[in-house]
Amino acid sequence: MMQDEDLNSRGRRNVVWEAIGKIKQIYQRYLDLWTPHVISRWIFTIFLVILFILRIVISQGWYIVTYALGIYHLNLFIAFLTPKIDPAMDFDDGEGPELPTRSNEEFRPFIRRLPEFKFWYSVTKSTIVAMICTLFDCFNIPVFWPILVMYFITLFLITMKRQLKHMIKYKYLPFTYGKPKYQNHEDTSRLTSPK
Q: Do the Cβ atoms of 88 and 82 come closer than 8 Å?
């Protein structure tokens, strides 16, 4: 009798895990379908952020949640702007891969520490979590919100100043517009030869 109950509970557990696995597959399928649509993904996320800001402005509360969300988004943005292999961490004395510093060096695309898709995904998830937090009064801690705004602006300016100095010092741009195209030998001979 004890074995029958044990087998029955295992069967239920397998059904639950199968259902969870199926939901994960469906979720991943929709993420995979949305991956190539960069502009529509970001429009959706911007719409979510605007909806969150409207919720905060109308309800006049949840400033701590907003501050935490802003700091998290700032952290993600800095990781998005930073190269995967940071030139400031030069442990090999120039032996490892470096960013090109002159225009005649080999083209190497900018590889981010946080790829664009993961950046978008994290911003979207965190905004949804913050919206859910605004549904509960326990997260509505009374604070003097102008101080939080000043803290955030100060943090943003200091962080971006440091990031810009880093970009100038190591001569990189966090945006790659594609590999430069060079003319092949036949194209240059046609341009120089008279017809």
A: no
C-alpha span between 41 and 127 (Å, rounded): 14
Q: For residue 121, which of 54, 51, 27 has the smallest C-alpha distance? A: 27
120: closest CA among 28, 48, 23? 48
Closest by CA position to 63, among listed 1, 184, 147, 182:
147
CB atoms within 10 A of CB 75: 13
Q: Is 159 helix (H, G, I), strand (E, B) or coil?
A: helix
Alpha-carbon span 3 to 20, nearest angstrom: 26
> What is the per-residue pLDDT across 44-94, written as a single tens digit (0 to 9) for each?
999 999 999 999 999 999 999 999 999 999 999 999 988 887 776 655 555
* Three-state DSSP class for residue 42: helix
Are 86 and 114 in contact, with CB atoms under 8 Å apart? Answer: no
pLDDT band for position 173 (50/70/90)?
confident
